[in-house]
Amino acid sequence: MGLLDILLGRTKPALPDLDRLFALPSAAVTLQAAAGFTPTGTGAVCFATVEGSAFEQTHREVQALLDADADRDGPPVELGKDEYGYSWLVSRRSPDQLSALVNDLHAVNSSMEVNGFGPQLLCSLAGFRAEGGRSLALVYLYKRGTFYPFAPLPGAGQRRDNALELQVKAALGDDLRMEQDLSRWFPVWGAPGL
């Protein structure tokens, strides 16, 4: 960044650092102690929908890479679309395999990035649940390199538990690089794992 950029208030965007995903298992311990949430075993990578043979090849590579893991029941990664037109590659593990789930998310993101689909990557998330059925996702914003909590309120409608989200942000501030700009805490309604 040059002097002119500094004077004009321009900043360089944060670069994605997929290795930050590996902080999720230690953050999960803090999250359980602070708010009573435990992993669901479901995680997902969200990206702008991509069509064509190049993406199909990438999807097959991801499947083959993750299929080598014998500790998994069912397909290694499921591809789905949400009601907003975004695609999700979903990985399911047992709740006690958060580290393996994080490895899956990292592998999916890395494969997409290496094969030229980095600009389409939006976010990754890991799902958590508390007693009483409350759900929470820790969302990693690919283009910002930061995390934020998303806590939908149970019941009908699209409402979120802002107080819980702020509580989780405060609790995990030492474990994860949290997104400070609350306007970037995008809702991920209907995301896998919630």
Report what the structure shows.
Pfam families: PspAB. By secondary structure, this protein is an alpha+beta fold. The chain has one domain (16-183). Helix content is 32%, strand content 23%. The chain has helices at 3-7, 24-35, 53-67, 98-117, 162-172, and strands spanning 37-48, 78-81, 86-92, 121-130, 135-141, 146-150. The protein has a 6-stranded antiparallel sheet. α2 crosses α5 and α3 packs antiparallel against α4. It is globular, with a radius of gyration of 17 Å. The termini are far apart. The model has no long low-confidence stretch (mean pLDDT 86).
Number of domains: 1
Biggest sheet strand line-up: 2-3-1-4-5-6
In percent, how much strand structure appears in the residues?
15-25%
Low-confidence stretches: none
SS summary, helix count: 5
Derived structural class: alpha+beta
Calculate Rg over CA atoms: 17 Å
The main sheet comes to: 6 strands, antiparallel
Morphology call: globular
Q: How many extended strands? A: 6
Helix content: 25-40%
Listing every helix as H and every strand as E from the N terminus to the C terminus, the arrangement reads HHEHEEHEEEH
N- to C-terminal distance = 40 Å
Mean of pLDDT: 86
